[in-house]
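Running this now, will post back.
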Amino acid sequence: GAWDDEMIIPASPPIEVGNDWYFYYTGFGANHAAGLPRNALIGAATLPKGRIASIGTAGTVRLKPITTGAADTLTVNCNASGGSLKVELLDEQNNVIYGYSRDDCDAITTDTYSTAVTWAGRGLIASRTVKVVFVLDSATLHACEIGAA
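Update: finished.
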């Protein structure tokens, strides 16, 4: 019974406004089978930036091995305001890399859209193949990005 419950057509990619994504679309209360005329209205939906999917709230998440290349920064989009998010780096034999354990990691304990992960103040190891392990304690991970500072 809603004006957009039968058919929607996205108008464009999302538009970033602050920490939100705005999605504009055309909505119809009738589908193609209803024939013409069909009334169309423009709608908008918002979603927190980068938070289309998430994983949490407690446990570990291990990524496939990656080669960091020139990248020296790992940033996360997470909500750890009720707990913490830590990260450890493993080598190709699944051994924790010295200085990059979960105990060395500077815990993230806030709701953040883009915070760099550090280990005793150090950034990501550049030019190395690593396995990234996220350690969640009452936290939700939405996205991560590896790049140059």
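Strands lie at 7-10, 15-17, 20-28, 40-48, 55-62, 66-67, 73-79, 84-90, 111-116, 129-147. More later if anyone needs it.
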